[in-house]
Structures are given as structure tokens and as C-alpha cells.
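Subject: Interface between my chains keeps coming out wrong

I've been trying for a while to get a sensible model of this assembly. When I model each chain on its own everything looks fine, but I need the whole thing in one frame so I can look at the contacts. Pasting all components below, labels as-is. Any help appreciated, I'm running out of ideas.
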Amino acid sequence: MVFRFLGTLSQKLLYGVGVTMKPQVVFVLGGPGAGKGTQCSRIVENYNYTHLSAGDLLRAERAREGSEFGLLIDSYIKEGKIVPVEITINLLRKAMEETIQTDEKKFRFLVDGFPRNEDNLQGWTTVMDGKADVKFVLFFDCSNEVCILRCLERGKSSGRTDDNRESLEKRIQTYLQSTRPIIDQYEKQGKVRTVDASRSLDEVFADVKAILDKEG
Ligand code: ADP
Ligand code: C5P
Ligand code: MG
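Reply #2:
Try treating it as a single job with all components included. I did that and got this:
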């Protein structure tokens, strides 16, 4: 019995079956409407990455029946404020675990819209340090004016409660005051790959491709 077990175990090790890879993460940051989600979809079509948008996960949690956080998330999103990380990190961790459990080859993640402030970053460090590797930050650099125009255009059909001028002013302030300093911190560590996101979708993606082909 023991020998049979050991036999199976050594076979597993030999063939690499049952060995789970540590999640490899690319943080995707940029202003509201910079094109993070759009480019992540293109990446998923062309590379072996799973896209996890913190904003999408929060909107899904807001809509989930019985969620104790629905009202809180709703008000934070309308105000363009960053939801306490305890909520967001749990959603991200669960999504990553579920993805890997479904298919152990899916250990590469684009974590879109996170970490957006110090609280986010601390929460990530507390929960994920040693459990996942952050490879680099993909930064979609875009002027506030272009970001606002894109979100207003998106707002015509998105149904989002924050794609309006009032919320957008607040989201831009949050981005400048809270998110830019996080990008600056990673920049000092040499971990930021910047793309000029004000150009056409294809031009932006050509740069993204060059980065991913180089970084793996
Ligand atoms: P984010 O996830 O950064 O908020 P999205 O990917 O949702 O941004 O894009 C915001 C809006 O701008 C969407 O309506 C999208 O179709 C549009 N968009 C995205 N990238 C570009 C681009 N390079 N040029 C013009 N419009 C774009
Ligand atoms: O990235 P996205 O534009 O979808 O985010 C929408 C909103 O979700 C943000 O303005 C913010 O209120 C909330 N959010 C958050 N924490 C994150 C990501 C998004 O609170 N890490
Ligand atoms: Mg998005």
C-alpha cells in the first residue's frame, strides 16, 4: 500500500503532474478609461493569461444576492473611492484559487486595476507575499482629458454608475493622489513597463506585445 502510494507520488513528481505553479502576476494600472480592460482582453486572446479586473470583481460582488458589502461597494464606486482592501483582496485571491483549481496550467494572471492605493498594496503584501510573484507593472499612460472622453463615450452604453462627469472628476483625483504614487514606487524598483495608451487600440497593443514577448 505504502509502496503503491510512493510509486504514484514519484510518478507525479516525474511527470510534473500535481505540482502547482506559484501564480505569476502582472499588475495592470492606468487612469480610468486608459484602456486597461480592452488591452487585457487582447492579451488573453494571444497569450496564456487570465484577466482579473478588481473593478469587475467588485461590481459582481455588489450584484451578488446576499452580499454584505453591496451597499458599501456601491457608494465607493459612485464616489470614485477605493474600497477597503480586505474586500478586494479576498475577491482576487478566491478568483485566482478557483482559476488554478480548474486548470493548474492557468497560473499567469493580469490583475487589472490593482493595487490602486497604499491600503491595496499593504493588503496584497499581507495576504499574497510569498504566495504569488509580481513580475512587473504594465502601465497604460494616458492624459486625463483622453481618459475622461473615453469614459464618457463608454458611459453611453456601459450602464456604469461612475461613467459620468461628476464621478469621473473624483476618479481622476483618486488616480492622481493615490494610484500614481504606487506606480512611482514600482518605477523606483525598475518594475514598470510604460505604454503610451493615447494611441489607437492596435498601436497600443503592438507595444504591449513587444513587452510580453520580451518578459514572457
Ligand atoms: P479601463 O479598463 O482602463 O477603464 P477600457 O478598456 O474599459 O478602460 O476602455 C475605456 C473606453 O475606451 C472603452 O469604451 C473602450 O472601448 C475605449 N478604448 C479603449 N482603448 C482605446 C483606444 N486605444 N483608443 C480609443 N478608445 C479606446
Ligand atoms: O477599474 P475600474 O474602473 O473598473 O474600477 C471602478 C471602481 O471600482 C473604482 O473607481 C473604485 O471605486 C473601485 N475599485 C476599488 N479598488 C480597486 C479597483 C476598483 O475600489 N482596486
Ligand atoms: Mg476596466
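Reply #3:
Confirming on my end. The CA atoms of residues 6 and 62 lie 47 Å apart.
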